[in-house]
Design goal:
Elements lengths: L4 H32 L2 H22 L2 H7 L5 H33 L4 H8 L1 H7 L2 H9 L3 H24 L4 H22 L10 H35 L2 H12 L2 H20 L5 H28 L1 H9 L7 H10 L3 H13 L3 H22 L4 H26 L6 H26 L4 H23 L1 H12 L2
């Protein structure tokens, strides 16, 4: 399929509305829920979601990316993946039902068995619409996905807030998660009329699995790595510590992940259509590296600069202990979209073996950091995550440039000015705010003003021409 510039821009707009609309709505709902619930409630749901996220990743099997990447895909391919995914999901749910009591004993959390069994229903609900999402992504129809996602988040959010207000505790979060998966599935089946054929091809499955298996292994490795943090924190530290970690992670990694997904959902099919043109891919990769820096560095560093007043005002004083790890996470996850973009390049170039090897290497490094810091508290764990993100970015950047036959410093040279300026501005504003005895509102206001002015001056002096390119891109020039 050939994609024109207008298709790319339209994809960005609607994919952005889908993901950004969802994340802003979720964050607004979280502000309400955080005031009604306790950190330990989020700790319990954090333990449960470790198993659910791994299960969903495994059930998808890497087939969604395989279908997008395959240029001569057929309806037989779609139907085969649909049936295989459904069977896998049901088997996983049965396994979760059986191991739930053991999980409760391991974490010593009363009532965890029922919570885990109920929320596992969302695995099946996600599996029934996998192909619907794939087909919409291939067609770059992110408008429909935006409407369905926003409606599902809104309705499930109402349920969650209602239950939290009536003191249902962790069950408010459980039913919010299940309801969101349910509404999203219903809207996709009603709004996008696709039904599987009564066909199942073993050859098709083998063909797709040859590409998707390495993506699956990488996705499982990444999911296992990220979930090892809540798993070990919940086991070694406490559910309260896990709640603080989960909330900090949610308000840093989630925005970074969502914004990155907006880019990847549109760029992957677009880049895949140019997979044989290295110069074209390199130019686009460099351009979107710079655009990512222009967006992500101010977004996350500004949050870090005003972290203390922001957290207390939004969540209340019972969450103020998350300030330190929140600041470190803001710095760490500025690298996340750059890492994901680099990893996408390996898929585009069909270097899935290299993709998997790099994932294994970087996650082993991250696991070493985690094991070295787990007994030293949340701040030490956060610094370990920062070290892992920087290390993974350097490694992925080196290999991407090697695959494209370019100097490995090309991408790093784009990022260094943003990083050093942001670090300097972070220290100046945080030292200034700590030294002046002001109310929380004034600290938040002045911090935001100085941060925004600082970035505006920096961009005006050094990146004025790059910013002027954005309107031209939108017009498709």
């Amino acid at each position: 399929m050939e994609y024109k510039n207008k298709d790319l821009i339209r994809g960005f707009v609607w994919s952005g509305l889908d993901k950004l609309g969802v994340v802003f709505l979720q964050l607004a709902l979280e502000l309400i829920l955080a005031r009604l619930l306790l950190p330990k409630d989020y700790g319990v749901i954090g333990v449960v979601l470790v198993f659910i996220s791994l299960a969903i990743t495994f059930s998808e099997g890497g087939f969604s990316n395989a279908l997008v990447h395959k240029l001569n895909r057929t309806e037989t391919d779609f139907s085969t993946v649909f049936y295989f995914n459904m069977i896998t999901s049901f088997l996983i749910v049965i396994i979760i039902f059986l191991i739930a009591p053991t999980v409760e004993k391991f974490f010593n959390i009363s009532g965890l068995t029922l919570v885990l069994r109920v929320i596992s229903v969302s695995i099946i609900l996600n599996s029934v619409v996998l192909i619907h999402k794939v087909k919409l992504s291939i067609a770059m129809d992110f408008k429909s996905q935006a409407k369905y996602s926003l409606a599902a988040v809104f309705l499930s959010g109402i349920i969650g807030v209602y239950l939290a207000y009536h003191q249902y505790g962790v069950w408010a979060l459980v039913f919010q998660n299940v309801a969101m998966a349910f509404f999203n599935a219903v809207f996709l089946w009603i709004g996008f009329r696709w039904f599987p054929k009564l066909e199942f091809s073993v050859e098709s499955l083998k063909s797709l699995f040859s590409f998707g298996s390495k993506i699956l292994a990488s996705s499982l490795l990444q999911a296992a790595y990220f979930n090892s943090y809540p798993f070990l924190i919940g086991r070694v530290l406490s559910t309260r510590d896990l709640g603080l970690y989960a909330k900090s992670n949610q308000f840093t990694l989630m925005p970074s992940s969502v914004l990155t997904t907006v880019l990847q959902r549109v760029l992957f099919p677009y880049f895949s259509s140019h997979q044989s043109d290295d110069e074209r891919i390199f130019g686009l990769n460099q351009l979107y590296t710079k655009l990512s820096c222009l967006i992500f560095f101010p977004l996350f560093f500004v949050m870090a600069m005003v972290a203390q007043p922001l957290i207390i005002i939004l969540f209340s004083e019972k969450w103020q202990d998350m300030t330190g790890i929140f600041v470190i996470f803001c710095v760490a996850y500025t690298f996340y979209p750059l890492i994901v973009n680099n990893m996408m390049m390996f898929q585009v170039k069909n270097k899935t073996s290299l993709f998997l090897k790099i994932e294994i290497l970087t996650k082993i490094i991250g696991l070493v950091f985690l094991l070295a810091t787990i007994n030293r508290g949340l701040i030490a764990i956060a610094y370990g995550i920062l070290a892992q993100q920087i290390t993974q970015f350097i490694i992925t950047s080196f290999f991407v440039q090697s695959v494209l036959n370019k100097n490995w410093l090309e991408q790093i040279k784009i990022i260094l000015p943003f990083f050093f300026f942001s670090i300097g501005l972070l220290f100046l504003i945080r030292i200034g705010l700590d030294a002046i005895p002001l109310s929380l509102i004034w600290k938040l206001f002045l911090g935001l003003v100085f941060a925004v002015v600082g970035y505006m001056v920096f961009y005006f002096i050094f990146y004025r021409k790059d910013i002027m390119l954005i309107p031209k891109m939108i017009r498709g020039n």
